[in-house]
């Protein structure tokens, strides 16, 4: 699904240049649930942003579902993001004046899906995250966990190839975190490929594979026995 | 870009962001409103100036006698100048090339009686041609004629309101009225567009007035109508040669400003029209200034709107919005709001102008109006400029990388 070869990325700040990713080689197969771990500032978000086509790489190659991701201009990146990827952010990033259902329907709007079908699909995915009754509510009327579940429903609505979550539980207490992880595990059970950036070991242990980043390189990449989150909720 | 879905998305955004919608809508509506009203006032100003001269002939000089202020050829200063019948004849003879008519005016006022009704009216001894200078319109009967002047008849031509006051529902024509103790026969009733005061006047032959006043040959003033063909410059040179002629005839120092006064209506009209058009230009300038201010206002709001929406636009981009769709979302929204509110402002302004009529006449503004073309042009100008002004920040917003927009503060 994802193939990365010898990826380099630096940030230029004035005359200085900060070399964040120093040659990453990394493959993800369909159906995997991968945790990207590492201390703060180790480049986890940078890697995920490049994989999510929110940022561009300096060197190396990136292939997504057999499509080489090169010469990304804004329009092309937007189209790929819309077609291939679903994002889940630490701070949810819901549009505050749109209801839960409208937020979930938004990626479908950019896919050109008709209005009626959008509404149906939005409700379907809200139901999947257990928030059907909250469809008409604004984000400000939802709890943190509920907001993240709406965001997950939104990421799912576009039926992407890969779900990418940057610290999805970073803003949640541990009980709510496990609820969210339970949901993510169920989505993965259904066959979706998911990448999760986290620095919390307990969250990483709920994935099937852990990739450890340090000083811009992968220092460890191991398959783990998944801890099911359902036992904590 | 113009799909129904895109519009629905825009309407929802507008509905759910009322403050933003109100701010930009209000700026535009106020801008257009003020423009329309100011521009309309400019037109009202011009109307007022046009009206000042509307009811009287404009190819006319009024010639008044004054008092000399300097001694000249043996006469002392402070001498009262007087005109008489001979002056009339002399001017008519010497300036025959230019003069259409000349008529004296001897103004008096006093009690006028008919049966039990009486009232004070101004009466004026005139020659027949006075009818032209005042554009007097006869409703019935006739005006003073040359035979009346020759025979010094006791005939009177009265205003419409004089007839109404004195005769009520009776027909005044052929009846006798008492003017200052002498009995006059009403031979005509007139109307005048100059307003009520003009219709509360009585005209009698000037020779009759002179006969009553001990058979004098003095006259108060002269009204001279020149041939319109001589044009503005002709009128100006006629004025100066007339002044020179009369000053030498009455032994007044050529440089004495006070011996004789000539009021040149053509010149005054021209000056007033110039003043009116200068005012019109200033007002239009201010009006277009408002439009510019409106454009600057809407531009600022657009910058603010885009800034406020940076995060939202970042989310939309992460979800697959292309730069083009980001730009069109912002632009269509702003064009929609400016169009609606622009036309509301235009409509309100026009309605206000139309309802004003002559309520502001005291401020020299009569029947203010604006050409629909100009109002629509200004509105469209503001819409286009608003869109152009919105395009710059919109394009900037579309270029912002989603990660930058989404970065947590
Ligand atoms: N846009 C940027 N410009 C400059 N430096 C950045 C930018 N984004 C991240 N960095 C720097 O790159 C390093 C890695 O950042 P990041 O990938 O966000 O780390 P992590 O997510 O692992 O905490 C950090 O030192 C951070 O300060
Ligand atoms: Mg991070």
Automatic annotation (TrEMBL), chain A:
GO MF annotation list: ATP binding; ATP hydrolysis activity; transmembrane transporter activity
Database matches in Pfam families: ABC_tran
InterPro entries: AAA+_ATPase, ABC_transporter-like_ATP-bd, ABC_transporter-like_CS, MacB-like_ATP-bd, P-loop_NTPase
PANTHER family named among the record's database cross-references: CELL DIVISION ATP-BINDING PROTEIN FTSE, LIPOPROTEIN-RELEASING SYSTEM ATP-BINDING PROTEIN LOLD
Gene3D superfamilies in UniProt: P-loop containing nucleotide triphosphate hydrolases
Protein name, as recorded: Putative ABC transport system ATP-binding protein
UniProt entry tagged with the keyword Transport: yes
All residue ranges annotated as the ABC transporter domain in the record: 2-233
Record keywords: ATP-binding, Nucleotide-binding, Translocase, Transport
Protein family per UniProt: Belongs to the ABC transporter superfamily. Macrolide exporter (TC 3.A.1.122) family.
Record-linked SMART domains: AAA
GO cellular component labels: membrane protein complex
UniProtKB/TrEMBL annotation, chain B:
Predominant subcellular localization, coarse grouping: membrane
Domain called ABC3 transporter permease C-terminal: residue spans: 285-402
Organism domain of life: Bacteria
All residue ranges annotated as the MacB-like periplasmic core domain in the record: 21-224
Mode of membrane association: Multi-pass membrane protein
Pfam families: FtsX, MacB_PCD
Transmembrane segments: 21-41, 278-305, 326-353, 373-392
Keyword terms, alphabetized: Cell membrane, Membrane, Transmembrane, Transmembrane helix
InterPro entries: ABC3_permease_C (IPR003838), MacB_PCD (IPR025857), Macrolide_Exporter_MacB (IPR050250)
Protein location: Cell membrane
GO cellular component, one term: plasma membrane
GO molecular function: transmembrane transporter activity
Alphabetical list of PANTHER family matching this protein: ABC TRANSPORTER PERMEASE YTRF (PTHR30572:SF4), MEMBRANE COMPONENT OF TRANSPORTER-RELATED (PTHR30572)
Family indicated by similarity: Belongs to the ABC-4 integral membrane protein family.
Protein name: Putative ABC transport system permease protein
